[in-house]
Amino acid sequence: MDVEQRGGKPILLLLPAALLFLILYVYPLGSLLSTSIYEDGFTTRYYAEFFGEPAYLKVLGRTVQVALSVTALTLLLGYPLGFVLATVRGKIAGALIAVILFPFWISVLVRTYAWMVLLGWRGVINTLLLGLGLRGEPFPLLYNQFGVHVGLVYVLLPFMVLPIYSTMQAF
Amino acid sequence: MAPAKHGADGSGISRRQFLVGTAAAATALALPRPALAQENAVVYCGWGGSSQDILRDAFMVPFGKKTGIRVLEASPTDYAKAKAMVEAKRVEWDVLQCDWDFIYRGRAENLLEPLDYKVISTKDVFPEAVHEHGIGYALGATVMTYRTDAYPPGKGPRTWAEFWDVKRFPGRRALPKDPYFLFPLAAAADGVPREKMYPMDVDRVFRSLERIRPHVFKWWETGGQSQQLITDKEADLVAGWTSRMFVVQKQGAPIHVELNEGAPWGDAWVVLRGAPHRENAMKFIAFAIQHEEGMAINSRAKLSGFTNARTGRLLEPAVAHALVSTPENRAKLLPGGDQWWGTSRAEMIKRMTAWLLK
């Protein structure tokens, strides 16, 4: 029996979240936006300054590039995972969900530092490779595109898997 | 199940009422918070991390005990943020710990309160540390450090030209990203004589940086990062600050700190214009600059130079001779150029950012 049938107004349930969102997100962002276009009168000079500086445009370009590649990678990894989650039954499904959600219980800072321990120049992976004699020199796995992608894909994978899973479940 | 039409039957909140209601609530709650200035406190913003821990013991705790004024801490010092706060007239920091060149910049851009020298005594303080808008309390340098498992102490690079010599001294390198700390090193490595260092030949500096660029895997941005890179063995050679490197050395990291050709910098205190606890900020500086026990703690921990002459008497000879500010050590350092940096730093940061993106 849903909220409406019981005579309640579902929109009221949204009120606390909406309030939080408005005060802590919309208002600060709005005041920041107004500062960027209003200074003793309307001005576009800050935007002109930003988009006129080639260094900033480069950074923006790189940001978009990384965003696209990370999205593609998480989709590649997340889609099959979501599919498996949606089709598997019972306890296995529960266990898989727990595994995907477990990292959320650990602070993102701790998780990132753990990756630094794994990927470092004399970190776990490189020490293993060198110790097994598979390679003479360590791989640079950190402070480059590779490290950035590993970190971002790892943190963002659950955000790709869960919506895919919930959508597939509806079928 | 027919979808309910809110408000159509006269009951419940219509969408319009909902939006108006939340907007009103948001506005009411978004009113300016009550002024913090009513509290008997002072907000100190420093570089954070181990550096601030030491200063807490040296100055903030004794100050609190003596005056009963609460010292609230913030970090890290961010010049862009400080400027934004002053211009928006929403200053959150009273005392700002900063590089000496910021005193010049802050004065030029009208970001600072002039220090109240009726309250602050400059007795026994070195004259070059005293400025109208700021006061220097510590001295350090950006120096070569290397892991002793890569090079035994003394066998590593001794000049920046040697640091740049990747054939003679191979190894992973990390250099500071901030031009203020980096450019003197690059200039010295290229052979710029000391008298000619300031005003800087920036094109020459960038040519020098081009040479070392392929061998630098990380341009570190924070003191904590420089410490971590060398203790985690990510880098064998790091150009870092004495205030950070001596601390990790004391904590047991196998590193050697080479003072020769160090690029000097100073730490200073300024009061931001429009600070909410202006009087308390002046009281803090007045206390701290005369608190030689605090300066001694700072000097012992980081081998930083002090600016109050009485501090020298409190230090053990072993420590006193190792300080960056002793005459013998000072002679090894490169010349400082805070006045040039005061007006050029922002521009150099832009150029450095552009260069890194190439």
Low-confidence stretches of chain B: 1-10
Number of strands of chain B: 9
What is the H-and-E element order of chain B?
A: HEHEHEHEHEHHEHEHEHHEHHHH
**From the alpha-carbon coordinates, what is the Rg of chain A to the nearest angstrom?**
23 Å
Largest interface: A-B, 27 and 25 residues
The multimeric state of the shown protein is heterodimer
Helix content of chain A: over 70%
- Continuous helix count of chain B: 15
Main sheet characteristics of chain A? none
Describe the protein in words.
- With 171 residues, chain A is an all-alpha fold.
- Chain A contains eight helices and no strands.
- Chain A has helices spanning 10-13, 15-37, 45-52, 54-87, 90-101, 108-119, 124-131, 145-169.
- In chain A, helix 4 crosses helix 8.
- The model of chain A has no long low-confidence stretch (mean pLDDT 89).
- The A-B interface holds A 2, 4-5, 9, 11-12, 15, 18-19, 22-23, 26-27, 35, 53-55, 58-59, 62, 116, 120-122, 140, 142-143 and B 1, 3-4, 6, 12-13, 15, 18, 22-23, 25-26, 29-30, 88, 172, 217-218, 232-234, 350, 353-354, 357.
Brief summary of the model shown:
Chain A is mainly α and 171 residues long.
Blueprint (SSEs and pairs):
The complex is a heterodimer of chains A (171) and B (358).
Chain A: H1 10-13, H2 15-37, H3 45-52, H4 54-87, H5 90-101, H6 108-119, H7 124-131, H8 145-169
Chain B: H1 15-29, E1 41-45, H2 49-67, E2 70-74, H3 79-88, E3 95-99, H4 101-108, E4 135-147, H5 160-163, E5 173-176, H6 179-189, H7 202-212, E6 216-220, H8 223-231, E7 237-241, H9 242-250, E8 255-271, H10 278-289, H11 292-302, E9 305-306, H12 311-314, H13 317-322, H14 327-332, H15 338-356
Parallel strand pairs in B: 1-2, 1-3, 5-6, 5-7
Antiparallel strand pairs in B: 3-8, 4-7, 4-8, 4-9
Helix pairs in contact in B: 2-11, 4-15, 6-7
